[in-house]
Fold this sequence. Notes:
This protein has 388 residues and is of the alpha/beta class.
Amino acid sequence: MKIHSPMDAVELSRIRAIGEKVQQLQKEGRDIVRLQIGEPDFTTPGHIIAAAKAAMDHGQTHYAPNRGLASLREEISRKLLRDNGITADPATEILVTSGCAEGLYLVFMGLVEPGDEVIILEPAYISYLQLARAAHARAVPVHAKEENGWLPDLDELRAAVTPKTKLLVLNTPGNPTGVVYPREVLQQIAALAQEQDFLVLSDEVYEKLIYGGAQHVSIASLDGMKERTITINGFSKAFAMTGWRMGYLAADARLILPMLKVHQYAVASSNIIAQSAAITALQAGESCVEEMRREYARRRQFLLDAFAQIPEISCVAPAGTFYIYPNISGTGLSGTEFADKFLMEAGVATVPGTAFDSFCNSHIRLSYASSMESLQTAVSRLKGMLKK
Ligand SMILES: Cc1ncc(COP(=O)(O)O)c(C=O)c1O
């Protein structure tokens, strides 16, 4: 039997595929340093785990409201105002989701129609392109360049807009390059969105992980943008809560409604135990986040210093996230060849740049959400590999 599916054009994650290859190599007894995945190596802070245990002990084991626990939405609303300058009514303008991953899915399923055009600023997190395909939309890449600090050229962006443009996907701080969009650039994008009447999805999951004085600005806080922006954020990266699957989105009530429909039928409500823990995460303050951020900053500096001493490798210093995106073209290899050789010969798993932008074959992405010891091993293996 031939099976046709509306998902035929959608690819499985290449990063997960590298993870499976790593597992296979480990099973064969190889010692692999895993820098391919964007997952904090820290365990969730103890007070958040304790809050989840207490929630269960107090019988918080039932369905939560579809939009999420009212008290969590109120905390999120306060956080959005305090940190991001966004006003969002907890009753109608916030939706608690199962990770940012679900938030992204809701935007594409709830707001994007077949034939719509979606502008993706590449290199970009792999989900955006695949979700555009899942929605039967046309993905329109605009390629940011390394020499421009991984910011898009505004003229190229303007040229990519057509009457069919429905949505622009923005990710700041950005995976995989670590770019943090300055306010002036966001203002120009905001002006274009209003002039050409399209929506903006602003994925801000790395908001708290910024370095060297960079400042995070939420595009929804700029004049005229609240009504056309869907702001997505969550707990995975900042609070080391990847496994809890906790996120949220904020948008105008009229945009929330179609997304609520998808959420209702796909998920019903996000895990109530994780929601209770998320309330504590927001209420308890961010000293734990700051502690982890400082450690990421130390690791980032270690990699920048190490790469500065390797003539075949150059790198734009990432202002945010826990990724670094070096240019390896000085080795004479493509990103794909390099990532393959680095894994097979040196036992270090990374992701080739082509996973994030089909034109970006001179780069690899490394995650420094891994112990300093693994990073040191990776660098010494890299030096050994390049000497051969
Ligand atoms: C840019 C970006 N957005 C969203 C996600 C998904 O995060 P979550 O764990 O909250 O689903 C990731 C995860 O790697 C990411 O890098």
